[in-house]
Design a protein that fits this description.
alpha+beta; 3-stranded antiparallel sheet; 2 helices
Amino acid sequence: MLALLHTFNLWRNGTAGKTTVVASDMNEALDRFCARLGYIDHADYCQEHGLTESDIHIEEVGKT
């Protein structure tokens, strides 16, 4: 059975644009986005920035 994939737009405050990521769920999308920024995953990103709440915005824009 094929997994349903979702398309998400992600961005950080103060950035010029959104990044589109295809993933199976929101958590995977956050991990992939943070990996593109050079972090291991979303948790690593938050830890490196001393965040208790993520500053990354995410919106689902489609399903495939």
